């Protein structure tokens, strides 16, 4: 139980850090905030990230308050977020990017594409890469912990019968 509680606490800290990094993205990423094309308004991704940040902090709190449930929720949420962030590449057209450009923009901290939109160097990639790393660590903690997905086990029982006869 102690190891699982430690895993849950670490997951809680990492989720809180994901929330803080999400706030950084909300404040620094010019494309996410719609500053590039003010006539288009703030993209839906901006509001989705606000929800993600709120959920990060909620699940972080649960991980501290209820380690068993919290680790399972943190692991499931992190896995879902990883999948959502990878699927986010399909939205490249919404930002007038080709898929490779959008991947470069989102995940490459050295991308010049990011700064060409008025972002500080490394934004959004440094934030997103750290969030993905923290989420991956949380999923690993969840899989290692007793609250992770159960592996099926098969137990084989062998019985022998001995018969004796009297003459």
Describe the protein in words.
- It is a single chain.
- This protein has 167 residues and is an all-alpha fold.
- Helix content is 62%, strand content 0%.
- The longest helix has 27 residues, at 2-28.
How much β-strand is present in the residues?
under 5%
Please state the oligomeric state of the protein chains shown: single chain
Poorly predicted regions? none
Please report the total strand number as a whole number.
0
Shape descriptor: elongated
Number of helices: 6
Summarize the amount of helix as a percent range: 55-70%
| Estimated radius of gyration | 23 Å
| Helix and strand element order | HHHHHH
Describe the secondary-structure layout.
Blueprint: H1 2-28, H2 44-65, H3 67-87, H4 99-107, H5 112-116, H6 125-144
Properties at a glance:
167 residues; mainly alpha
At a glance:
The chain has 167 residues and is mainly α. The protein is 62% helix and 0% strand.
